[in-house]
Write a structure and sequence with these properties.
Layout (H helix, E strand, L loop, with lengths): L2 E6 L13 H12 L12 E4 L4 H13 L11 E5 L4 E5 L2 H13 L17 E2 L2 E2 L5 E6 L13 E6 L1 E6 L4 E6 L3 H15 L5 H7 L7 H5 L6 E2 L3 E2 L3 H17 L4 E10 L2 E2 L6 H8 L4 E5 L4 E4 L4 E5 L4 E5 L1 E6 L4 H12 L2 H19 L8 E10 L3 E11 L6 H8 L7 E2 L1 H11 L10 E6 L4 E4 L4 E5 L2 E10 L5 H21 L1
Antiparallel strand pairs: 1-10, 2-3, 2-15, 3-9, 4-8, 5-6, 7-8, 7-23, 9-10, 11-14, 12-13, 13-22, 13-26, 15-16, 16-25, 17-18, 17-24, 18-21, 19-21, 20-21, 23-24, 25-26
Helix pairs in contact: 1-4, 4-5, 8-13
C-alpha cells in the first residue's frame, strides 16, 4: 500500500506565534539539493505555492475556529513540493497529447477514477482530504496556430510522493511513496518548523547530513541579475492592434478579445530559484508554481484557477475578469474598490466569460448541473483588485478528468468570446506566440483530484532570457490608454521585483 500520512508534523501554529513561512523552507531545501556539499538529491522539481503570508494564515485559522462547518475559501490551504519523478512526458503535437490522455482511460488511471486505497489512509485536515499525494504534474501551453506552435505543447512528470504544507493547520504531510530524499527533506522541514525560526542548531542536530549547506540555504547570497525588461510592443504598436480588435468587435466577429503583449529581459545570470521568494512575497499567489521543465523553468504568481475537479466529480472554475490597481492609501484603495465593483463595464466583461465557462463546462457536465455559485466577487491581491466569479458543475459519467480539462482549454478569461474566433484574432495580431503564458499548470492526482491554474502573472526562463506577458479583455467600450495601463499594472510589480534582486 502507498505511504499515506505515516509522518505528519506537530501543529505549532497559535495566535501567539508568527505564521510559519513554508515557502522559504521549501525553497531552501531545493537549493540545498543543488549543492555538491551534501547528498540530498532532488531533480525535475515541482513546487505548487499558495499565498502564505502571516495575515492570510491568521485569517484562515481564525475563520476556521469560529465555525468549523463554515464553507470558507480553501483555495490557499495547501502548498506542495514534489521531485524525482519516475516518468516524464513531453508532447510536441495535439495528437500526442490525445493519445496520452487516452492511455489513462485504457489503463484505468486515477485521472478518471479514485485511487484504490481506502479513504482511511488519506491525509485529512478538518475532515478535508489533502488533494494531491502523488500523480502527474505539469503544464499545457497555450495552443497556437500550427505554423507557430511551440516545440513543447505540454510537459508532465509523474511524482510518486509529495510533501504538503497545510496553511490552515500549519503542519506538513509526507504523502505517496517517498524515496530517501523525500524522507530527508521532510525530517529537515519538521525540525525547521519546530524551531519556529529554523534555528541552525536545532536543524543541524536533527539532520546532520544536511548540515554543510544549512545556513547558506536559509539565507543564501544571490548571484541573480537580470537586464531590464523591454516591451516587444510600444504604446503605438499596442494602439494599432487595439484598433484592429475594435474593428472586429464592431463587425460582430466577437464580443470580447483578450489582447496581450510580451516584455523581454534579454539576459540574466544566476538561478531562477533566487527569484522565487522575492516574487512570492511581493505577489502572494493563490495558484503559484515553480516547475523545472525540459528546456525552460516556469515561475508563476497566478491568482486564477482554471478548473478543479474533486474525487466526487465536482468541477469548479473561477474566472477573473475586471481589474483595478491598488493604492497604499487605505481611503483611496477603498475608493478604487468601489469603482471596480460598481463598474458596469467590468461586470459586463465578467458576465461574458461566465457565460462562456458555463458552456465549456456543460460539455463535460451532467445536464442541468452547471450553476453560477458566485458572481462578481471581490478578490484583493498586493498589486490589484479583481472581480472573480465561480461556476460549478457535476462531471458526466464516462468523462475523465483529462478530457474535461481539454474540453474547456484554454480558459475563456484569457481568450475572449466567442472563443474560437477570439483565438483566431489573437493568432493574427499578437507579436509572438504565447508559449506557456495563458496555458495552464496543475496536477492529476492519484487521489482522484485535479486542479489547474491559468498561467498569468508568469515568467518563462528560456535560453538565458526571461519573458513576462501582460494583457486584458477588450470590448467595444474599452479605452486604449486605460487598457494599455492595466496590462502594465498587472505585471509591473513582477518586473520591478526581478530587476531589483
Amino acid at each position: 500500500m502507498p505511504f499515506q500520512n505515516n509522518r505528519t508534523s506537530t501543529n505549532v501554529h497559535s495566535s501567539d506565534s508568527p505564521a510559519f513561512d513554508s515557502c522559504l523552507l521549501f525553497i531552501s531545501a531545493i537549493k540545498m539539493s543543488r549543492s555538491a556539499k551534501n547528498n540530498l538529491s532532488l531533480h525535475k522539481i515541482s513546487l505548487l505555492v499558495s499565498e502564505s503570508s502571516q495575515a492570510a494564515q491568521a485569517n484562515m485559522a481564525e475563520e476556521n475556529n469560529i465555525d468549523e462547518n463554515k464553507d470558507i475559501n480553501r483555495d490557499r490551504q495547501f502548498s506542495f513540493l514534489s521531485a524525482n519523478p519516475t516518468q516524464s512526458k513531453s508532447f510536441s503535437c495535439q495528437d500526442e497529447i490525445n493519445r496520452w490522455k487516452q492511455a489513462f482511460l485504457t489503463d484505468n488511471s486515477s485521472i478518471t477514477k479514485q485511487s484504490p486505497h481506502d479513504d482511511t489512509d488519506l491525509a485529512l485536515t478538518n475532515g478535508r482530504e489533502v488533494p494531491f499525494h502523488s500523480g502527474w504534474v505539469g503544464y499545457f501551453s497555450y495552443p497556437q496556430a500550427q505554423s507557430t506552435a511551440p516545440l513543447v505543447m505540454a510537459e508532465f512528470n509523474y511524482y510518486p510522493w509529495s510533501i504538503c504544507f497545510d496553511h490552515i493547520n500549519s503542519c506538513f504531510y509526507l504523502l505517496g511513496e517517498p524515496d530517501q530524499a523525500a524522507i530527508d527533506v521532510y525530517e529537515w522541514l519538521l525540525a525547521a518548523q519546530l524551531s519556529e525560526k529554523a534555528a541552525p542548531s536545532t536543524v543541524l542536530a536533527s539532520t546532520p547530513e544536511l548540515a554543510p549547506e544549512l545556513e547558506s540555504a536559509l539565507a543564501p547570497p544571490s548571484s541573480f541579475q537580470a537586464e531590464p525588461f523591454i516591451a516587444k510592443w510600444g504604446q503605438q504598436n499596442y494602439q494599432l492592434a487595439f484598433s484592429k480588435v475594435q474593428d472586429y468587435l464592431i463587425a460582430g466577429d466577437c464580443y470580447q478579445v483578450n489582447l496581450t503583449h510580451p516584455f523581454i529581459s534579454p539576459n540574466y545570470t544566476g538561478s531562477p530559484l533566487d527569484t522565487l521568494m522575492p516574487l512570492f512575497k511581493a505577489l502572494k499567489p493563490s495558484f503559484g508554481c515553480y516547475f523545472e521543465g525540459e528546456s525552460c523553468e516556469l515561475v508563476s504568481m497566478s491568482p486564477e484557477r482554471f478548473i478543479s475537479i474533486n474525487s466526487s466529480g465536482k468541477l469548479e472554475a473561477k474566472p477573473i475578469k475586471g481589474t483595478i490597481k491598488r493604492s497604499d492609501d487605505p481611503i483611496l484603495d477603498q475608493a478604487l474598490i468601489k469603482e471596480l465593483v460598481n463598474s458596469s463595464k467590468n461586470q459586463a466583461e465578467n458576465l461574458m466569460i461566465v457565460d462562456l465557462l458555463r458552456n465549456d463546462l456543460s460539455i463535460s457536465a451532467e445536464p442541468g448541473s452547471v450553476q453560477v455559485d458566485k458572481l462578481f466577487e471581490l478578490e484583493s491581491h498586493p498589486n490589484v483588485h479583481h472581480l472573480v466569479s465561480t461556476i460549478s458543475a457535476q462531471l458526466k459519467p464516462g468523462i475523465g478528468h483529462a478530457e474535461a480539462i481539454g474540453n474547456a482549454f484554454p480558459g475563456g478569461s484569457i481568450t475572449g468570446a466567442p472563443k474560437k474566433r477570439a483565438m483566431e484574432i489573437i493568432d493574427e495580431l499578437e507579436v509572438q506566440p504565447r508559449s506557456l503564458y495563458c496555458g495552464s499548470f496543475g496536477y492529476f492526482s492519484d487521489t482522484g483530484n485535479t486542479d489547474f491554474n491559468i498561467l498569468i502573472r508568469s515568467l518563462e526562463f528560456r535560453d538565458n532570457t526571461i519573458t513576462c506577458w501582460g494583457g486584458g479583455g477588450i470590448t467595444v467600450d474599452s479605452d486604449c490608454a486605460e487598457e494599455y495601463e492595466e496590462s502594465l499594472t498587472k505585471i509591473r510589480r513582477i518586473m520591478d521585483t526581478i530587476e531589483k534582486i
